[in-house]
Amino acid sequence: MRLSRYFLPVLKEAPAEAEIVSHKLMLRAGMIQQLSAGIYSWLPLGFAVLKKVEQIVREEMNAAGAIEILMPTIQPADLWRESGRYEAYGKEMLRIKDRHEREMLYGPTNEENVTDIFRRHVRSYRQLPLNLYHIQWKFRDEIRPRFGVMRGREFLMKDAYSFDLDYEGAKRSYDNMFVAYLRAFKRMGLTAIPMQAETGPIGGNMSHEFQILAQTGESAVYYDAAFEQIDFNAPDLDPEMLRSLYAAADEKHDPASCPVPPERLRSGRGIEVGHIFYFGTKYSKPMGAVVMGPDGTEVPVEMGSYGIGVSRLVGALIEAFHDEKGIIWPESVAPFRIGLVNLRPDDAATTAMAEELYMRFTAMGVDVLLDDRDERAGVKFATMDLIGLPWQVTVGPRGVKEDKVEIKSRRTGEREEVTPVELLERFAG
Amino acid sequence: MRLSRYFLPVLKEAPAEAEIVSHKLMLRAGMIQQLSAGIYSWLPLGFAVLKKVEQIVREEMNAAGAIEILMPTIQPADLWRESGRYEAYGKEMLRIKDRHEREMLYGPTNEENVTDIFRRHVRSYRQLPLNLYHIQWKFRDEIRPRFGVMRGREFLMKDAYSFDLDYEGAKRSYDNMFVAYLRAFKRMGLTAIPMQAETGPIGGNMSHEFQILAQTGESAVYYDAAFEQIDFNAPDLDPEMLRSLYAAADEKHDPASCPVPPERLRSGRGIEVGHIFYFGTKYSKPMGAVVMGPDGTEVPVEMGSYGIGVSRLVGALIEAFHDEKGIIWPESVAPFRIGLVNLRPDDAATTAMAEELYMRFTAMGVDVLLDDRDERAGVKFATMDLIGLPWQVTVGPRGVKEDKVEIKSRRTGEREEVTPVELLERFAG
């Protein structure tokens, strides 16, 4: 993509309403634009990251055997009356009347909807286990939306729902998602700490939330240093072992009774990015979602639900990865892999080399953003540091004479002079 | 994907509420599930097609230089008061009050939102032309939703918005989208006829709608046979030439005055799947979206908008491509390319060959659905014909003995016996 043809409205100053660093940087980097309190438009750079995060979540869900569907945003109130949640859910539910005065709502979550799909089509335990997920916009009418996409009203969530014949099956499904979550966050470069959690309005008997670590996190967390040693790509990752490792939020952590020896205890600040629930028959029983078991008797299906805040993760990633100059994207979620700076668009040799590299990277399938604008070098470097692409490649007249370009790692700040051929080789394959 | 692990709730009979063939087949093939009038959940097979259609639209928009963003579904009423449309828009607009009694709405379209983004960030003609698009769910509260996803209330639309300094620029942007639309529909295997259209609630001075041809189409269309001869992949496709070809809806077609000689006149039935508008300064003027021109004076930006009904296209494709047995997907939008039928899961040699082929296709990146269910052959063939995958490959005990499998084209019905090696070669690369 050429910056001259892109839409990247960077700002020098963060608007006053932004309180936290991710919100400030998302506004400054032209990633989002507020439309109304807690409701944002995703501009091209923000949209690109959102899609990358979404795709990692999708791939890990698919790898775990979950099947993607898409449920609508608007749901009928009657469905929520069946589960008893329509009255119970507070003012965070956006309630709507359609033109025929029918009561509807903008889904804050989809347990009822997916249970309805299940009960209409599944009859036998032979069709189990089943895990259906979707990635869809939700709405929660927060009384005081804040922190940009971290606590918005309209937000993108991945929610998966598992169906099993019995507790043992449900437990396997829960474990399966538990591990998939840790893998997904790891692929984004994040260390996620799973913690026992309250079940809240979803209800249920077992629940974990996943906090990713960031200096600017919203709450203190304490955890076993062993978390930092685990290979989350191991095929046989054991959820029981992982859950046995100590992890506690501030309010539950008691140094006096903490089972982890002090030298192994770590503390940090966490941001919740995922939450999983086992809730058994809480929805299947009132809604009549039953399956015939092997013994011929009908039983309500055992369910769990599993959420990841996809749009929230974009903010959380910035909280975890930034410095005073801007964002530092991990490669897996970067909107472009390389920022290619043409230092002197008015110089023919410089432009020829920059254009050649741009063309070659594009042909190689490497996402590159070419700064071909007629701007001062300082502006270009500041823009690249702000938007945080992992690699900055600078092409300037002096280097061109020596057949050299400069490559800089945004994360480490290390710079190196390489020939264009070496540069291309580095990003090949 | 293994059918035994997939979620494909096919139905023997179409529910009574389905009036048209696409609605019937989408329900029978387990593609969608109604949640409320005009509101559907997309089950795995339907979701897969929806994503394929969306991706073709996305690629053609990107190829045309449009830039993807994502605007929210919920918008503040005040923004629509600026354009004057809040009061003007009828009961099809879903109006909402949030917990603070602020008036909101579920966007039926996004001209106001995108104009707001533009006016906040663009100042100079140098940043033009600009074309921003998104693919997002919309809501129109149809008084009588019907025909499944063809006239739903919650629907997925691609809407693009162009910004130019003057009429000439706006015309180029319009032409650009005009051609991109024809290419996109062609990639889906559809013949689209562009027709001059009324501008309706979007307003404006120039407008075309795109009708795709299907025997079961909603309205009669008349067009120049030359449309069938055009190479829509030609790089220099001329929009003026295309617009000069005769095309008219039933109510505008007058045989007496029709300029096309009878031997070149074709008639068919059409389904509207796209609509493009040039409307100049209709939104930019009241909303103050101005740019500085080369002469230093500020002018309201010239705009157009360009919609494609992404979810509607899934239904329209079925209207265009089906027979009495079910759906016949064009390869470009098929949920899987191959349906691989293991005729006898209880036979070791048959299963070994079916599994081997499944593994190889998967490794080759060919989307394949393996029917590994313990079902009668007749049920399996009927399912494959119903869901309409382009190629059916059957592995049975008799063929296995001779190192042969059968491949059938869903479209032509032609069958052929080939060796597994020949089969794999056919789908390689």
From TrEMBL, chains A, B:
Key words, A-Z: Aminoacyl-tRNA synthetase, ATP-binding, Cytoplasm, Ligase, Nucleotide-binding, Protein biosynthesis
What CDD domains does UniProt report for this protein, alphabetically?
Answer: ProRS_anticodon_short (cd00861), ProRS_core_prok (cd00779)
Is Ligase tagged as a keyword? yes
> Could you tell me what this protein is called?
Proline--tRNA ligase
Q: Which molecular-function annotations from GO does this UniProt entry contain?
A: proline-tRNA ligase activity
Do you know which PROSITE patterns this protein is assigned to?
Answer: AA_TRNA_LIGASE_II
> Looking at the Swiss-Prot or TrEMBL record, what is one Pfam family this protein matches?
HGTP_anticodon
Top-level enzyme category: ligase
Task: Give every Aminoacyl-transfer RNA synthetases class-II family profile domain span.
Answer: 33-330
What family does the entry list? Answer: Belongs to the class-II aminoacyl-tRNA synthetase family. ProS type 2 subfamily.
Q: Which reaction does it catalyse?
A: tRNA(Pro) + L-proline + ATP = L-prolyl-tRNA(Pro) + AMP + diphosphate
Signal sequence, start to end: none
Record text on subunit structure and interactions: Homodimer.
The job of this chain, per UniProt, is described as: Catalyzes the attachment of proline to tRNA(Pro) in a two-step reaction: proline is first activated by ATP to form Pro-AMP and then transferred to the acceptor end of tRNA(Pro).
Reply yes or no: does the keyword Membrane apply. Answer: no
Q: What is its main location?
A: cytoplasm
Q: What is its EC number?
A: 6.1.1.15
Compartment annotation: Cytoplasm
Q: Which HAMAP family match?
A: Pro_tRNA_synth_type2
